Amino acid sequence: VEAQAMEKIILASNLGAAKETIIDNKTGFLFKANDSEDLSNKLSHIFELDETTLKYFTELACRRSHRAFH
Questions:
Q1: How many CB atoms lie within 10 A of CB 59?
Q2: What is the three-class DSSP state of 11?
């Protein structure tokens, strides 16, 4: 939640609170726990995003975190 509020791109495993605070492919990215191939694919996808798309993700995550957790 703190990283979302700071407009940082989020990548986390789909365990615990992350799956409750991150909307996959909308406010961040979730990878399957213990699946290094899925993690690698998500990282590659993030690195390929253009700046406009990255900004969209981070701003949306920030707004959502402020509404939901503040």
A1: 12
A2: strand
